[in-house]
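ok here's VOC family protein, seq below lol
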Amino acid sequence: MVKIQGINHITIRVSNIESSKTFYMNILGAKIVHKGNTDVYLDAGGVWLCLIEIKDAKPMDKNQVGVDHFAFTVSEEHFPKAVQLLREQNVEITRGPIQRGGGNTVSFNDLDGNEIEFFTGSLQERMKNWKQAMEVS
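and the structure came out like this:
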């Protein structure tokens, strides 16, 4: 067994490196660490994101096996500001904002349809919330 220490980085395939870089910088506050010809490395709140440009990329079918979405922790205090920013930037919100799983959540798509979530809860809160829901049903 390998002892995992955490997530090292997330690599996201995008159709246009420049517009995607701008999106992640504007929405997540990501900072450029490195920029190559077809890739850019960003730091988003301590999470390392690598955007790789794929020319003539086709969107993934939602019924395909693969990553469904990824979520970033946002404080309860900052959550309303995060939702407001999404709306001001005309970002497509796919779910929420709602309270779910022990916290507030809002899901949205990046420019290529990759789903991202802002979530205020913790794993412990989510499991406690779901355990209570299972006891009721």
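fwiw The longest strand covers residues 93-100. kinda neat tbh
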